[in-house]
């Protein structure tokens, strides 16, 4: 495309099919402890 | 829902519900807001003073193609999906063990009241810790990865129990097919070679608390006699970070009304050699002089922009570092269930006091209204747990139409409660800062991809 470049991202709709295993890290166990940040957690199923 | 913004010269369009992110030129940036409610001819006419008809047509067709591919103007139909998730019986998979309600520092902003959490000084016994691990294993269902954070107060004031609990946890992993991921959060005062060796062997992550520049750190993180702790802890943190090859740790600070120029503190940490950095806004009642106010917001938001630009420069020069709140995993990030279901407090995540009481998370410890049960008798307040179970993006009125909902998962329930008296409310200052961090994080990804 000439006017729009799309970054490579995970298909969120598609993640409904196999998602929700619950194995990924709890956000407050990483480094926050006062704010909720899930966007930077990695999916365990992609490893 | 589509969110458009400009940052550092990049024009970015987020299609929130599909997770797609587009970097666009001026024409597309102006066509997209008109696309849904206007015909092509109307858009050409409306933008005729700025762009040629051909450019608008080209851009329009690209937008149309993306919509057809499900990458623009995607509808939100996740709510019923989330309702299905809510029906599940909660399993616990993470615990914050308050191994010591005591501290050897007297940090002025401590939500734990110098470790005491509005209660008494106490150290967790091995028996209570063991009961907590047993509860975790027995109530974790099919979850294999179990997270246990040694927290305080200052956990190293009860290091012997930490060691014994890790040993116990490791001894039961195989039998129950579990994998413990231990982490430790420390102020560094008691950090020594023995502790470092132990942490490097057993802990997947270690959080090292410092606020940055010496004057900032010492003002808020003094010993009880008033003397600053910077000189004592920084060399130890540097050694710890190096011993872990600059990975799997964070130096973590808190910024307040007193250091609104906090980007300088982050840069200071980077200049000290740290590669994994997290600095967060203090959460405090407005009555405290160090609390962040809405008047502080413009300066704080600008600080994130300054920091993001500086990080780009350093990356170009091979001096890059990670800033926790700008880290975003676009391709391998969490599934939509994780993104919408909240932090898990009160359900998959529990805090345990030294005497074994359960609270929804560390932030609620000490507030008796949120006492859920204890390690010996289990969860008693299932009514309260149900409230936390139902707490997610769709139960929060202010989250439904927010572009950041897939990145913060509805934010911190404790912050919401502290500022709106409702775990489904919101903490507006925190939301504004979060939204800015998401925009900066995405800008950095766009810059790294070197697009357009």
From TrEMBL, chain A:
Name the record gives this protein: Six-cysteine peptide SCIFF
Organism: Acetitomaculum ruminis DSM 5522
Source organism, top-level taxon: Bacteria
InterPro entries in alphabetical order: Six-Cys_pep_SCIFF
TrEMBL record, chain B:
Record domain Radical SAM core: where: 89-319
Cofactor(s) named in the record: [4Fe-4S] cluster
Keywords from the named record: Iron, Iron-sulfur, Metal-binding, S-adenosyl-L-methionine
UniProt keyword Heme, yes or no: no
Presence of keyword Aminoacyl-tRNA synthetase: no
Entry-linked InterPro entries: 4Fe4S-binding_SPASM_dom (IPR023885), Aldolase_TIM (IPR013785), rSAM (IPR007197), rSAM_sf (IPR058240), SCIFF_rSAM_maturase (IPR024025), SPASM_CteB-like (IPR047602), Sulphatase_maturase_rSAM (IPR023867)
GO molecular function: iron-sulfur cluster binding; metal ion binding; oxidoreductase activity
Gene3D superfamilies the UniProt entry points to: Aldolase class I
NCBIfam families from the UniProt entry: rSAM_more_4Fe4S, rSAM_six_Cys
Protein name: Radical SAM core domain-containing protein
